[in-house]
Amino acid sequence: MKIVIIIPTYNERANIGPLLDALQGQFATIEHDMHVLVVDDDSPDGTQDAVRDRMRSMSNLELITGEKQGLGSAYIRGMTHVLRTGSADAVFEMDADFSHKSEDVPRLIAALESGADFVIGSRYVGGGTIPPDWGFLRRMNSRLGNLVARYLAGIYRVKDCTAGFRAIRTSLLSRIDLTDLRVQGYAFQIALLYEAVIRKAKIVEVPVDFIERREGQSKLGLDDILEFLQSALWLRFRSSTTFIKFGIVGSSGVLVNLGAFSLLLLLGMNKYVASAIAIELSIVWNFFLNNAWTFRWRSKHDHFHLRGLKFNAVSFLTLGVSFGTFTSLSLTFPDLSPYLSQLAGIVPAALLNYFLNSYWTFKDQPAGSVHR
Ligand code: GDD
Ligand code: MN
């Protein structure tokens, strides 16, 4: 595999040179084609001089520069650069301040090799650690960030959502619109992870020790914290929007159904034929809208017509569930209001409809990672 380790830097002059040396030493033990890309935001402390100095002896080292916009922007530029210019199979995210150990790089690669798309060097799975000398506030800060990411943004299954040490397959990365992430700072970590989750990427956490930096200082600011919270809220909203959109489409389908039905009756059509045609028209209407809007971001490789057939099948099945509920309730409780029975039928039918269409008809179909 060709692997590019992306290291964002801002005022890391004291760290970056020794880190590049450590990585180069580590690469000697790795059988893959290892590269490093430093993304420096015009650090005033001369970080770039230290990088350029190492470039004279490291042919696998590249530097890109730009204005300071934040950690996330730096990663977005770095990743876009890798996707555009190289045939890399994976990229790493790694800090310049020795918080992430070069010795752990092979273990993250091993997880990629056993099929993961997105590997997290995790402090919060068994065996992972945070610095023992972190004070209460620092611990709480990190814990809270993760709680927000897991329970507000909805990334439940990942234990360390904010980790900055990761290995990601480019086959996954190239399916994500990096320019559309709307984050500049540390919120990038959860925004990118979320994109991987909704694409059903295989996410693996590998325990690591997080080491406190010795030189320089953290760049995490209040702006980053605010953007992080805002981003988590936005992700929560996005998770519910798929369901909300599905509901909006369904309601519009009811209008189409009734509209078509009245029109056909006006044209003098037999009411049974008119009803059937109106139902099918609304199903087709719903399908087009769900395909083009509700589930637009899902990567689909099957035939459009096949998806249409599946959608139709689901519609008829849920029609059956709705009608079945209505009939059995009416038969078991003859005194029950028919409106209640009808309503009771709609609820399971709507949920089943959403569930089947989301996980079957419009199932996200990852392209499958290419091995070169
Ligand atoms: N180019 C660029 N631009 N690099 C930046 C910027 C920026 O605006 N801000 C930070 N960096 C670089 C730093 O130079 C360092 O190499 C790396 O990004 C991490 O920055 P730190 O300032 O050391 O972050 P931290 O130690 O507070 O946070 C670490 O832990 C967090 C979770 O607790 C990082 O790993 C974060 O990514 C992680 O979310
Ligand atoms: Mn740090």
Overview features:
372 residues, alpha/beta, Spore Coat Polysaccharide Biosynthesis Protein SpsA, Chain A, 2 domains, 11 helices, 54% helix, disordered C terminus, binds guanosine-5'-diphosphate-alpha-D-mannose, binds manganese (II) ion
Q: What is this entry, summarized?
A:
With 372 residues, the protein is of the alpha/beta class.
Descriptive notes:
The chain has 372 residues and is α/β, with parallel strands linked by helices. It has 2 domains: 2-238, Spore Coat Polysaccharide Biosynthesis Protein SpsA, Chain A (Alpha-Beta Complex), CATH 3.90.550; 241-361, no CATH class. 54% of the residues lie in helices and 10% in strands. It has 11 helices and 7 strands. The chain has helices spanning 13-27, 47-55, 71-85, 105-113, 136-152, 170-173, 188-198, 222-266, 271-294, 304-332, 338-361; strands spanning 2-9, 33-40, 61-65, 90-93, 118-122, 166-169, 203-207. Helix 1 (13-27) links the parallel strand 1 (2-9) and strand 2 (33-40). Bound molecules: guanosine-5'-diphosphate-alpha-D-mannose and manganese (II) ion (MN).
SSE arrangement:
Blueprint: E1 2-9, H1 13-27, E2 33-40, H2 47-55, E3 61-65, H3 71-85, E4 90-93, H4 105-113, E5 118-122, H5 136-152, E6 166-169, H6 170-173, H7 188-198, E7 203-207, H8 222-266, H9 271-294, H10 304-332, H11 338-361
Parallel strand pairs: 1-2, 1-4, 2-3, 5-7
Antiparallel strand pairs: 4-6, 5-6
Helix pairs in contact: 1-2, 5-8, 7-8, 8-9, 9-10, 10-11
The chain binds guanosine-5'-diphosphate-alpha-D-mannose and manganese (II) ion.
